[in-house]
Amino acid sequence: GAAYVDGAFVPVGEARISILDTGFSRSDVTYDVVAVWNGAFFRLEDHLERFERSCRTLRLSPPYDRAEIARILVQLVRSSRLRSAYVETICTRGVPPPGSRDPRTFENSFFAYAIPYVWIVPDASTTGTMDAVIARTVQRIPVTSVDPTVKNFHWADLTRGLYEAYDRGATHPILLDADGNVTEGPGYNVFAVSDGTLLTPAAGVLEGITRRTVLELAEADGIPVSVGPFGEDRLRDAVEMFATSTAGGVMPIVTLDGAPIGDGAVGPTTRHLRERYWAAHADTRYL
Ligand code: PLP
């Protein structure tokens, strides 16, 4: 892989940042992740737009504009020589000038790296599946200082959820919020199919670009969609479930708390949307 640090392209293993960078020391940072699939970015413009919006919300000003970042990413992927890559952009508040705590005086940092495409689930494009649990030991606690729609590094709840899933013999947690509403998991949004309708939470989750793609494809195919709050009882009634992420696309969930979902096989709606998702990678509208 390759990284972009301090204006230079370097092998990812050689990339270094300052221990004083507030992205590291204060989680004062936002990021985005876009995939390159077979040599082409998937929805790069949408990812850059979300990154820009996240920066604006946190009053971060990356030292480059959108077009410059796009050029950096193209060069980064070229220098990585990867055909399919996981490409992360990061903007931090930067290193404080000596003695200053006034964020207006900080020069914000921009970093990026490209590494081989990351799969949350192995073989997710064809046969990979997930075994999920509803997390009991941890809630998705919105970091009060960060809007959940801003991609952030506050992963303590998500990581604790992962430990719980493994402790309970599963692989992937689904976190509820304090009101018992379904939210998301570590790096993925969650969908259920119930009564012929595709359900996904609306609020308190990251507005995933993969989630958006699935909603667009469902709409184009006339699949009824309901975007709004629902509790774990709706998940238990579901005949199909899946998770979505830039790292793996549409990933079927086949068990919940140890019990099969539907008949325990990948259902027709999930299979259809997974095929449509990967086919969209050749659709010029998304490039
Ligand atoms: N939810 C969280 C908390 C995430 O970190 C991510 C992506 O990393 C997602 C959902 C999925 O978003 P996207 O489809 O844009 O990758």
TrEMBL record:
This is D-alanine aminotransferase. It is an enzyme of class 2 (transferase). Keywords: Aminotransferase, Pyridoxal phosphate, Transferase. InterPro entries: Aminotrans_IV, Aminotransferase-like, BCAT-like_C, BCAT-like_N, Class-IV_PLP-Dep_Aminotrnsfr. The gene is dat. Its cofactor is pyridoxal 5'-phosphate. Its EC number is 2.6.1.21. GO terms for molecular function: D-alanine-2-oxoglutarate aminotransferase activity. Pfam families: Aminotran_4 (PF01063).
